[in-house]
User: Fold this.
Amino acid sequence: MPEDKVHKITLVTCTAPVNIAVIKYWGKRDEDLILPINSSLSVTLHQDQLKTTTTVACSSSFKEDRIWLNGKEDDINQPRLQSCLRELRRLARKRRCDGDAGADALACSHRVHICSVNNFPTAAGLASSAAGYACLVYTLSRLLGVEGELSEVARQGSGSACRSMYGGFVQWRMGEQEDGKDSVAEQVEPESHWPELRVLILVVSAERKPVGSTAGMQTSVETSPLLKHRADSLVPGRMEEMVGAVRRRDFAAFGELTMKDSNQFHATCMDTYPPIFYLSDVSRSVINLVHRYNQHYGETRVAYTFDAGPNAVIYTLEQHVAEFVQAVKHFFPPETNGGQFLRGLSVSPVSLSEELKSSIGMNPLSKGISYIISTKAGPGPQMVEDPSLHLLGSDGLPKKSA
Assistant:
């Protein structure tokens, strides 16, 4: 680990990915341990397009733990943040007590400074807390010399963060034990398993959502009979179906189940009292576009899913990306001439047939979509070796650019 001789500061920087669930997690059976009422399955997105970067520094000169998020100092005493710090320090001490030479004795006792940035909008329904806590846990584990099952620790920060501890296709098993030891994530298949799969994020709004996920799911658990039916009777079968569809690379089955599960998640939000509305008019127009596009071809070529926010995540195969992006541009004309409308993986421009436009038959909705992020499945957390990319300087404070 790089070390500054004057201040004796040890710095570690890592990155972690966003994941987007295709079988949704909504509702906890234990609020403190963040144990879910149902299992879930997600796709980890590539960090070239969406990631959190976190630098953790420790030094005997630090008087207290501190954290900076996206350029601003934040409250280090948030209960979930404290849960992760406490658990990782406990594991580090245990490893040291067990006589493991790899455990860093000084790091266990020193205070830490944490600096974290997202390269995407925070809290706008783009799974920022999942990437953030996965990155925090992974970076601290590298600093403290903690190895083993880290998804259980990440889960205590944000439930879906446990799925961001792995790349590719990941399931979070709900578990049955009261202490949550069996509520962990595991990789179903690596990111290399389905190279043709592509992901388009249609950013409808980068604003902070009106009802946060934590408050929303708590109200749903308390008031929605549909949520209980979903968790008990439907999700177990859907998990089996989805794992099978992923392993077979069966897009039609994968896409249809993804859309049905998204719709049902938002139905449980509607069934919550008072109801929660995460989808906007633009979100519903995207849903219509997808169904009309698929109906035109007589098969499921694209699929949507929406988390707790209005942004659409589209799954499709590589050969359909260019045409569907063009369809989005046609029916949701961008403010710009297309320069920054499409970000991420490049997409070749194509023309839409008049037959397809007529078949979809929607009135264009200008400025409905701010921009599109084009991406694919990617790996889990990564260590950053280049010391120039640390977000904290040799004084343990954020660099100006961070």
